[in-house]
Task: structure prediction
Amino acid sequence: MMDVDHWIDAATGQPHAGTPLGMALTAQAHSTPDRPAMTIAGKTYSFARFEALANQRAHDLSARGVQPGDRVILSMPNRVEYLQCAFALWKIGAAPCPVSERLTEAEFQTIVELSDAAHVIGPRSLPAGAARLHDIDAPLDPALSDAPLPAAIAQPGKIANSGGSTGRPKLIVDPLPSVWGPDKEGCRRGPRLTLLNPGPLYHSAPFNTTAMALAQGTHIVCMERFDPQFWLELVERHRVDYAYMVPTMMTRIAKLPAQETASADLSSIETLLHMAAPCPMNVKRWWIDRIGADHVWEVYGGTERIGGTTIGGAEWLAHPQSVGRARPDEEILITDEQGRPLPQGEIGEIRFRKTSGVRTGYAYIGSDYRIVADTDSFGDMGWLDRDGYLYIADRRTDMILVGGVNIYPAEIEAAVEALPEVLCCAVIGLPDADLGNRVHAIVELAQATPPPDPVAFLRRVGERLSGLRVRTH
Result:
């Protein structure tokens, strides 16, 4: 029998500092084998079953050539195998790189090349390129061992995928290993909760939130895709106490018929955490009125962990639209284009400085850094009030936020301008009551070129872009 206390606190489920993530899952399964680990598509997996399947996948992938230190792309819709494979890779000592399965062939192969991934795990339809594709739909050999592997640590712990402002994807390499530590903690996210995730697991926040919560013994209720009515139903059915959201989802729930939202029992929610985009003031107030200010929390930050803020609903009511103040070990500066500090109240680039002088050490692949002296930046614009509260003016000067997803104009412009009849293209964001913004392209055609059929034109553009960037109406 495993000595659980070596890896986690058996009474609470909290992993000890330095525990490899793969062993944290194993310890949870030994401590509370019958506790639900993950529910998705109407099926619930206990920690014992989830751990056994993750171990089988680790043995299978290892036999197929996945080695410690490998970078492995995970690309599939939300399904139980997503997180099982992530833990299988950590058990081997390999680094997962979550990537959308909706990318075009060119986009996907660019990420394979940038990441130097030796393996891709996902459906057979993925264009794996030079990497070896492991078909997620191929059944596992039932004879595979489900015994835990020896403790292993991946360095880096993971690699995140993000769009790049040059029109090319970029990767963010996490400098920290796959072991439990302060960096793995979430806002108000203690051990052994019930967490509802409505977002795609290829996004950094849903992936990190669900995977790290599993390591804490939390029951993950994961939606295959977001639906506002079903979200309400899942909260009631599973008595969810921790909910991760983005503002577009919050808006769609708030806009449901009043009788639907009023009759839903949301009393179990202790923490509703939202991030990824500015939240409309009326939507934020709706949620505060609905579940209470003490339960609504917002985080501003990024995968790079160069800095961030947190604010609760009660504090937000005193400072509406703020995302909070600097953490104790950080300082926020607002600067001009030359990196010079601006006076309080003026809009400029938001920069973070570690008071210890030690930065996180993340690495970009496919993008330039924004480091100036001892400060770093996500490239966002904002201002500080006299009390040091931060307000976001614009997420990026060259970026459009659509439903919490970063859309970069340069990427779309390049795809449109690749069409032979196009001279040039400018892409802007227009306000949208549901998604926050919608993408609008202004296209100049070559002389004597007749106006194209819009549906056919967008279809051709769509062949060069992933589905989130193209809507044919």
In short: DSSP finds twelve helices and 24 strands in the chain. The CA atoms of residues 207 and 424 lie 37 Å apart.
